[in-house]
Amino acid sequence: LKFPSRMRGEFLSGKCTIYKLFGLCMVLVLISLLWLQLSCSGDMSSVTRQNQHDPQPPPPPCPTERQASAADDPSWGPHKLALVVPFRERFEELLVFVPFMHKFLNKKKIRHKILIINQVDHYRFNRASLINVGFKESGNDTDYLAMHDVDLLPLNEALDYGFPKEGPFHVASPELHPLYHYKTYVGGILLLTKRHYHMCNGMSNRFWGWGREDDEFYRRLRKAELQLFRPSGITTGYKTFLHIHDPAWRKRDQKRVAAQKQEQFKVDPDGGLTNLQYQVDSRQELTISGAPCTIINTKLECDQNQTPWCLLS
User: Fold this and answer.
1) What is the distance, to the nearest Å, from the Cα of residue 176 to the centroid of all Cα atoms in its chain?
2) What is the Cα–Cα distance from 118 to 278, expressed in whole angstroms?
3) What share of the chain is helix, strand, coil (3-state, %, to 5)?
4) What gap in Å lies between CA 295 and CA 258, rounded to an integer?
5) Which range among 64-73, 141-150, 255-264 has the greatest average pLDDT?
6) What is the pLDDT of residues 250-279, one digit of tens each?
7) What is the pTM of this model?
8) Strand 144-148 versus strand 189-193 pairing type
9) 151: left (phi over 0), alpha (psi -120 to 50) or beta
10) Is 162 left (phi over 0), alpha (psi -120 to 50) or beta?
């Protein structure tokens, strides 16, 4: 079968037109895909450049970080206090003490860190040895310490917690302490420079159980020829401090065993920082109601030949 030449030309012309349209469509598809790829690459590089040159702002600091930056302000002065708290199993009082003291000292612009020296061994409580541990573990960033009971809170903002350059400063003086009023009392809250504490060789390690270690330390202050200072101009009397200890709930270990009755009134001429024996079991950084503190879990050691009363049995 033969077609006329005119019909064959029209058929070939239509066939070429279809191929042209198909080719044109393929070109358009390729151009679209290329444009899409270039657009995506451009967007990604733009995002990358934006992340590099304009990163997301960091989250706002927590309250404790803001407080720490405030404590680095030069107006707070160059000194830093190690607030040393001898401690064992009085967690209810600790939950009150740490945030209260952190707020109190911040308000007075006292740079500080709170060290809770927690006795975790099986011996009787030894407040003096724990304070010695606090002195040794306080670090080089502090230059004075407060020997501070966990159950005594200062209520009068006029009380001075500043650097005691001239000599030991007894914050909880007999005229102000709610319980103890004898003239040689130096317990409760006592501030000393580290140099002065070292001059006394710290506190005696012979006092296991409650009491008498402060009286022996008073004699050390006298021997080191350090003048003792106390607050003046405080008019709040025995209401200057809040004593939060509940004797019915937390009974003190006042037992005197073996030769302890006779030894408790003697001066310990050699003991102190030089014969302190202890191990740090662990350290824990803790925040209580926004107030930071360091818990130093401590195991004291006892030479039962020297102080057999470190155990009750």
Assistant:
1) 28
2) 12
3) 40, 20, 45
4) 33
5) 141-150
6) 666 556 666 655 666 677 888 999 999 999
7) 0.75
8) antiparallel
9) alpha
10) beta
Token readout for 26 is 């393929």
H/E segment holding residue 300: strand 291-300
pLDDT in tens, 43-68: 444 444 444 444 455 444 445 444 44
83 vs 94: CA distance, rounded Å: 13
First to last CA, the chain: 129
Query: How many helices (H) and strands (E) in the chain?
Result: 7, 9
CA torsion, ordered 103, 105, 107, 111, to nearest 10 deg? -120
Is 231 in contact with 176 (CB distance < 8 Å)?
yes
**Opening angle at CA 251, ends 95 and 241, nearest 5:** 50
pLDDT over 70 (residue 120): yes
Helix pair 213-223, 127-137: axis angle to 10 deg: 50
Task: Retrieve residue 3's tokens.
Answer: 């077609």
The DSSP letter of residue 201 is T
Domain 82-247+257-302 classification at class level: alpha beta
* CA separation for the pair 101, 81 (Å, rounded): 12
Tokens 């030449």: give the residue. 5
